[in-house]
Amino acid sequence: MIFVDTGAWFALSVESDPDHQSAKAFVSANREPLVTSDYVIDELLTLFVVRDEKARGIEWLHIVLDQGGVDVIQVNADCMNEARRIYCDFVDKTWSFTDCTSYAIMQRLAIKKAFSFDDDFRQFGIV
């Protein structure tokens, strides 16, 4: 199982993104199930708007979510509490709260791999 982060989804969707070709290559070679979270989806859709790519965000919703193939994990109260702990305990890190929820989900589900172009996951000790 591979957890997909916001930046990876964005790179996959936007051809002008510097990581677009790497993202496409990863997806075509991947044979493991992909998972993401509702918080990642929120962050991604906001990023599409901020970068004037809302139409691609709508397209992403139709292609990725409507066609299936990706499990979406909901951030529940336990995950929220763990993410809060992570966020507060690592004051020297610049991890977003969404990244902290992603890490909490990955710990809970014993996911060891992330599809991300973000150094945060390497700092978490995840490849």
Structural class by SSE content: alpha/beta
The major sheet is characterized as: 4 strands, parallel
Give the count of helical stretches: 7
The first-level CATH class is given as Alpha Beta
Q: Please identify which CATH superfamily we are dealing with.
A: 5'-nuclease
| H/E element order | EHHEHHEHHEH
Number of domains: 1
Which residue ranges are poorly predicted, with pLDDT under 50 across at least 5 consecutive positions?
Answer: none
Strand order of the main beta sheet, please?
A: 3-2-1-4
Provide the CATH architecture: 3-Layer(aba) Sandwich
Report the mean per-residue pLDDT as an integer: 93
State the shape: globular
Strand content: 5-15%
What does this 3D model show about the protein?
Helices cover 59% and strands 11% of the residues. The chain is α/β, with parallel strands linked by helices and 127 residues long. The two termini are 12 Å apart. α1 (6-13) packs across α2, α3 (38-50) packs antiparallel against α4 (54-66) and α5 (77-89) crosses α6. Strands 3-2-1-4 form a 4-stranded parallel beta sheet. It has a single domain (2-123), classed as Rossmann fold (3-Layer(aba) Sandwich), CATH 3.40.50.1010. The chain is built from 7 helices and 4 strands.
What does this entry show, briefly?
By secondary structure, the protein is α/β, with parallel strands linked by helices. The chain is built from seven helices and four strands.
